[in-house]
Amino acid sequence: MKTTWFFPLTILSLAMLFFQGCIASLHPLYTGKDLVFDKRLLGTWHTSDPNETWNLQNLLESQHSQFKEPKEGKEKDIFQSSLINKNSYLLTYTENGAKAEFMFNLVKLGDHFFVDLFPLDLHEKNELLKNHYLPVHSYAKIKIENNGFEMCSLNSELIYELLNKNKIRIKHESLEFENVITASTEELQKFIVKFADNKDFFKDPVKFKH
Fold it and tell me: Most buried among 36, 78, 99, 208, using CB within 10 Å?
């Protein structure tokens, strides 16, 4: 029997990232047609924190055991929640020598670009343990330049405050440990595009340089 407990994903590696305190969502921000690839993102990146590095490579061209030999023309699912295709990146995040792997997708919605982040570590766990975690996505707005990029995660405190006051609306569940957005991908896209130019909905940017 498959039992799923609704534990927040942040108790895993997401707590290490600047996505900490981010919006957790059951569904991805994208469909396959929304994914784009920008080779400027490839390589190893550094933030103002000297203890961390971010390495980005094409997921299907990486040596990751789950995706080393994909069947041509086929897309793969992780937990039936996260669509992978030729534009997906593998993010290897390292902090003080400890590594965690994520699927990193670059999403184009209108004139805006976003990142959809999803953990790969859970895919490596044993079946019983995996069934006791809820896989979730987190999002950030991204601006790419020739010599680097910057990302702004969503301002979860403000968004959940407005949700609780019914000043904005999007489907969600308030759980014991975490608020989780349950809206469909289509609803998510409409929501995030609507507020994409509202600076209050995003935290200060984190800058990445080689």
Answer: 208
3 part of a folded domain:
no
CA-wise closest residue to 58 among 28, 82, 38, 76: 38
Q: Are 133 and 115 in contact (CB under 8 A)?
A: no
Tokens of 176: 């014991």
User: Is residue 2 one of the residues assigned to a domain?
Assistant: no
| 144 lies in some domain | yes
- The per-residue pLDDT for range 60-77, each reduced to its tens digit, is 888 665 665 545 445 554
Number of domains composing the chain: 1
- Choose the weakest-confidence range: 3-12, 55-64, 106-115: 3-12
Asked if the structure places residue 4 within a domain, the reply is no
Cα 153 from Cα 141, distance rounded (Å): 6
Helix (H) or strand (E) holding 124: helix 121-124
List the Cα angle 120/136/8 in 5-degree steps.
105
Under DSSP, is residue 145 helix (H, G, I), strand (E, B) or coil?
strand
By the 8 A CB rule, do 60 and 196 touch? Answer: no
Query: Does position 172 have pLDDT exceeding 50, yes or no?
Result: yes
